[in-house]
């Protein structure tokens, strides 16, 4: 059992309510993202149920061996090894099925992607599914189902240890807890320092502003950013060496409450701009430069 689990679930409930409220507010301010935010709200409701169910389980995570954590961090090894997650097939599979149902109900154009056979629970083994032997879906829907099943487990783990571990010496671009690269960065409202944010587990850590999180390049000639006209709140930091980018929110430019997961959704147009400029996974250079992107 988690320690103080009633305090913990109370905190989850409060955070959940805050997030839903913020998201509904956003639906009014960014109407182009209304539909996707509506979908995300359904996902959040499901995620809450899932986390509450997981909370009642015996602790599936690595025991709190803080000396081991410190020595891992010194060597640049993230704290959580995914092989240590003890799968609870029933809770996790039921969650996955409900997510698939949400996805199916929202999918207008590609109903064939969601085979009804997949939605049958009989003989379904989550671990086999996740290791790629039973994959009825491919691409984004699949990635979504997997991360929405695994990430809440990572987040519970991260939450348990974050106040007891010092991440200030972790000078790496990947997450000290789960090892994923950050989805977003933020510049502190007070100091302007940069922090990176793992949306997989919710961990945030400070990282040099003049170093690429992906390839650790520190050559200032190779680092720059794209900013978006009339939205000083956002910028896209780019590295010419590895051609990766990171969406960054400048907290000095906003007084609104910020939720990074919501920010990641309502800045999908920045991902498009970055990709059209040749940054991101495929690194292919687009033919046209979007009108509102300005090189700095
Ligand atoms: Zn993480
Ligand atoms: Zn780089």
Number of beta-strand segments = 7
Class inferred from helices and paired strands: alpha+beta
**Strand neighbour order, sheet with most strands:** 3-2-1-6-5-4-7
Distinct helical segment count: 9
Q: What small ligands are held by the chains?
A: zinc ion
Q: Tell me, rounded to a whole number, the average pLDDT.
A: 84
| N- to C-terminal distance | 51 Å
SSE run:
HHHHHHHEEEEEEHHE
User: Could you list the spans in which at least 5 consecutive residues all have pLDDT below 50?
Assistant: 283-296
Major beta-sheet overview: 7 strands, mixed
Shape designation: globular
> Measured on Cα atoms, how large is the radius of gyration?
20 Å
Number of domains: 2
Query: Helical residue percent?
Result: 40-55%
Q: What is the beta-strand fraction? A: 5-15%
What does this structure look like?
It is a single chain. The chain is of the alpha+beta class and 296 residues long. It folds into two domains: 5-164; 184-295, FdhE-like domain (FdhE-like fold). The chain is built from nine helices and seven strands. The protein has helices spanning 5-29, 34-55, 66-74, 89-106, 116-119, 126-130, 140-161, 260-266, 268-276; strands at 184-187, 194-197, 204-206, 223-228, 234-239, 245-250, 293-295. Helix 4 crosses helix 7. The longest helix has 25 residues, at 5-29. It is globular and about 55 Å long. The chain starts with a helix and ends with a strand. Bound molecules: zinc ion (ZN) (2 copies). One zinc ion is lined by residues 212, 214-215, 217, 239, 241-242, 244.
